[in-house]
Amino acid sequence: MQHNILTSIRTTKITDGCKGTHVYALNSSAAADSPNTAGGGDTIGDKKLFHHLLDRSKHSGRFKPVGPKTATRDVVLEGLLPCGLPSSEILEPSIEPCLKPVDLVETLAGVYRRIEDCVEVEKSEAFLEQCAVFKGLPDVKLFRRSLRSARQHAVDVHSKVVLASWLRYERREDELVGSSAMDCCGRNVECPKASLVPGYDPESGFDHCVCYRKFVDNDDGECESECSTSYGVDDGSGDGDYHDMYFCIGDSDIRCNRYAMASLSRPFMAMLYGGFVESRRERINFTLNSVNVEVMMAVEIFSRTKRLSGFPNNVVLEMLSFANRFCCVEMKSACDAHLASLMFDMDDALLLIEYGVEENAYLLVAACLQVFLRELPSSMHRLSVMKLFCSVEGRDRLASVGHVSFSLYCFLSQVAMEDDVKSTTSVMLLERLGECAASGWQKQLAYHQLGVVMLERKEYKDAQHWFEAAVEAGHIYSSVGVARAQYKRGHTYAAYKLINSLISDHKPVGWMYQERSLYCIGKEKSMDLVSATELDPTLSFPYKHRAVFMVEENNIGAAVSEINKIIGFKISPDCLELRAWFLIAMKDYEGALRDVRAILTLDPNYMMFNGNMQGTRLVELLRPVAQQWNQADCWMQLYDRWSSVDDIGSLAVVHQMLENNPGKSVLRFRQSLLLLRLNSQKAAMRSLRLARNHSSSAHERLVYEGWILYDTGHREEAIAKAEESISIQRSFEAFFLKAYALADSCLDSESSKNVIDLLEEALKCPSDGLRKGQALNNLGSIYVDCDKLELAADCYKHALNIKHTRAHQGLARVYHLQNQHKAAYDEMTKLIEKAQNNASAYEKRSEYCDRDMAKSDLSLATQLDPLRTYPYRYRAAVLMDDHKEAEAIVELSRAINFKPELQLLHLRAAFYDSMGDFVSTVRDCEAALCLDPSHAEMLELCNKAREQVKDRK
Predict the structure, then answer these.
(1) What DSSP string describes 887-938?
(2) Residue 496 CB neighbours (<10 A)
(3) Cβ–Cβ < 8 Å for 604, 662
(4) pTM for the full predicted model
(5) Phi then psi dihedrals of residue 153, to 5 deg
(6) Shortest CA distance to 173 belongs to which of 615, 709, 816, 603?
(7) For 710-739, how does the pLDDT look when each residue is reduced to its tens digit (9 = 90+)?
(8) Taking each helix axis from N to C terminus, what angle separates 573-585 and 556-567, rounded to the nearest 10 degrees?
(9) With helix as H, strand as E and coil as C, how does 854-892 read?
């Protein structure tokens, strides 16, 4: 009953959010009967009323931003807030530069079907579409996995080069000191040499490549044997080969085997064996063909040996030109492949790509292209490279050699937008992307991103044009861009109408109400923002707007509480900036400094106060008015914050410690762990790379390289790095890395024993309490899985003794398994009391109490962190047990609409299956399989439901 009431309240709010149609008298039927209409059935009087209300809100004192002198006349405060406090009038949500379907579940299901149904050689393109969809999801690992699948199924060299380079870029190996662009990770999927081998072989994609095997296999000396082949001017001595003719160039005679030379091409065959006079001559004059003696001798040797080894590169280049002139297909292919295999240098690539394009050398151009792509983003700043990629002429020249594709420009435009979204380079590359777009999703992506860039450049008319093109191609979300461009051009009413019709015509989504709120005022704006949050609590703009509005109402405390709601489960620089802004106004300088330091950890170049002050400058201004700590104090503060699960506070302390000791790699590593906890994966990887670069020893560097590999999906390579590090020096982090990577699989008894041994070895090595607490916690988990509960309890208690607060959760699990439910509940209560971020603690405690108390704990968990999906699954399961199937589906759908997680989709699919709705079952299963195609239970359920659908037809 309580659930019904809550559902009713939520539905009422959403419905109320649509009442703007009544306020502004936009009833289409009434307007149709009125003689005074102006486009779309809306009256001129309605437009005047709309603009009158909007203008009145802009001039109302209620919306006037509170300046620093209104808040306080303190001199220090004025210096810290040179721009005053934020204004709700200038706040706008960003338009995401990615595909954003209205029905994500249906889109995921459709992508999965296309991957499954297409022929093998078309799978790479299908996976590329999946990449585009995954790019809009918060889990970057999904995108990387899909990108690896696209590379795995690539057929042609061009696609392999682009996708392998893209994979390398995602790891940002260019930031690793001492690394080369052409370095190989040891697998075919990213190997620069393997990328130049044509053909479809998906099974070998993750095998060790030649680069890796060369360190294992002995050199057979074949190269030396080939290199010994001589190619001098004939001295008459002979070498055992049969020669029966000569090519004469000037005063030099190059003796040849007629049959071998004729086999080079049809023109040579016709000349030497056809009806020409040369077929009857022993000496043929080749002087007028502009071929030098050295090249002709090399051609002769190739005609017999079919090898190029030992020839200088300039000779091979001339042989390539010779092969083109005389249609020597085999020799051209050999020269092309040989030159491509030698391409590892940017300067050589810049020089030879022109030659490769001129000679139509596909592999040579591919190799040059690969160097450019693997050097990104630095190669983006070379004029000649960008001229080749950005200009229409450059694109046409690449196309003539078969090296233009949507994937190429999709990769390039992503790099350009990340570097500078407003740049001319971004515009030109996206224009080339649009020209390459063929299928619907490709046009949607290209046109939408062009719209985003033009909007950022304040070229609103062009932005509207491209957004409209994207909408026409089928991307509904681009309507937001159309409305925003109209709004920027002064057509607020048209923008409102567009989004209002969007809400009427489609299943409402959070971003629709968020966008419409920009074009409303007063109560209607507030209601739309509430509806946006209810439909999608992960949208940050509604929280930000409400918080700023509270500041304008001189209620800064409430503003901080409002912004804390989203910071509690989704950390982002813009929300932290707002809170820092508010805390400065409240003279909580230490809290503000904490937030600014956390911002700079996420984005070292962040500009505060609407881009008017560097974050580092604000740190300098806040430092004198906040409490100062020395390095020893910082370690104590870090222990306290770590033990109280205050991740943002811990980030701030580490940032201060790095100011004093920027080369301390262990601090960078600690920073990366905190960032991973906060789901800031890109920032975490940046910290890991910095840790690696500042490593003071080889064994330490190997550990950080191992973590980088592990976090980017290269588990076996990470284990190899750990083992190599241990062989140099036994260390806590090397053993911990190996144990962690080994545990990331289904552990049997033998594997569990290995992990336990590794963790015990780690604990014998020197380390600080923070890391040893984590190791003890992990060791306890393995003991629990092995049913060694007493040993597990000892581990957790030892971890708690060194302030590893999260061990309360493990100890509670042990008590629960020992049927000590009250002790388990009390242990989780201790964690709730100690931890600042305690949504997971409430969630876990719900397992150790009765249904009513569990509902209360899970309700709190959802309020604190809507992204935690277990509470939705639990409530849905309870509803199903009570035979409230429809309400159970609604409960799951609430979460799926903003977080289509595998477990949520699996449970909803099972519910649909039990209800006999097999079409919906198949859809949810396919969407889940798109996220994890190897999920055995989902595959079984999907196949079963498909059979049911077939039987009913």
Answers:
(1) HHHHHHHHHHTT---HHHHHHHHHHHHHHT-HHHHHHHHHHHHHH-TT-HHH
(2) 25
(3) no
(4) 0.86
(5) -100, 10
(6) 709
(7) 988 888 889 999 999 999 999 999 999 999
(8) 160
(9) HHHHHHHHHHHCCCCCHHHHHHHHHHHHCCCHHHHHHHH
